[in-house]
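Quiz preparation item.
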């Protein structure tokens, strides 16, 4: 079934759902996955984002998302000024990303909390929708259309079963799941999209598993 918003597009500020609304959502996703407000952001624009992004307000939209704005926030055009007021330092340049969607950005973020850093590549795929394609150099694929649990763990047996069993016992249904790793025996990453929100007590329980390096949880926007 096609949703009416897939045809009409999102409620937003700006001329383009791909270059503006999608860009805001990419910035917001980066802020969420960083786990705190960013203090520095290096934004490397690829393809159409680099060529026509300024004219469509992509640059201001990305910064707006990093500040925590939504696509319909009337303050998006003022995001540069607001970022200066809030102490967010940002820069833009152009980059060629291999096999990337034309509307892509590679973000290098450092948080206000000590030790918080994130490298995230994402693209805007149309209609205000996005896809995250890389986290800290590891290939992933998720959209933010679901509640999303991202787990970095040691590449060893048992961790997948521990996590999925815990979610099942909490009556959280897994919609999609992907696994990736840099090398055998190194670090691995689980990306689990769920229909239900994951209760904080369940997230804390998973955090305490031996071998879990880091978990990040993205709760989808209310419809």
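Solution:
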């Amino acid at each position: 079934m096609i949703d009416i918003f897939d045809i009409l597009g999102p409620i937003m500020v700006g001329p383009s759902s791909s270059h503006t609304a999608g860009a805001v959502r990419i910035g917001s996703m980066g802020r969420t996955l960083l786990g705190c407000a960013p203090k520095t952001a290096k934004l490397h624009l690829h393809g159409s984002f680099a060529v026509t992004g300024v004219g469509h307000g992509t640059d201001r939209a990305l910064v707006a998302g990093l500040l925590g704005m939504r696509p319909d926030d009337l303050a998006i055009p003022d995001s540069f000024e607001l970022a200066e007021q809030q102490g967010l330092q940002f820069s833009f340049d152009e980059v060629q990303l291999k096999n990337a969607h034309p509307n892509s950005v590679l973000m290098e973020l450092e948080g206000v909390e000590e030790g918080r850093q994130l490298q995230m590549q994402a693209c805007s795929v149309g209609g205000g929708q996005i896809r995250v394609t890389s986290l800290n150099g590891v290939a992933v694929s998720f959209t933010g259309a679901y509640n999303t649990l991202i787990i970095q763990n040691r590449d060893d047996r048992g961790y997948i079963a521990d996590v999925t069993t815990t979610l099942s016992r909490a009556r959280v249904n897994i919609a999609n799941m992907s696994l990736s790793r840099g090398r055998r025996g190194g670090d691995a990453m689980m990306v689990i999209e769920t229909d239900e929100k994951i209760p904080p007590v369940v997230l804390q329980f998973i955090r305490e598993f031996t071998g879990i390096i880091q978990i990040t949880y993205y709760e989808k926007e209310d419809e």
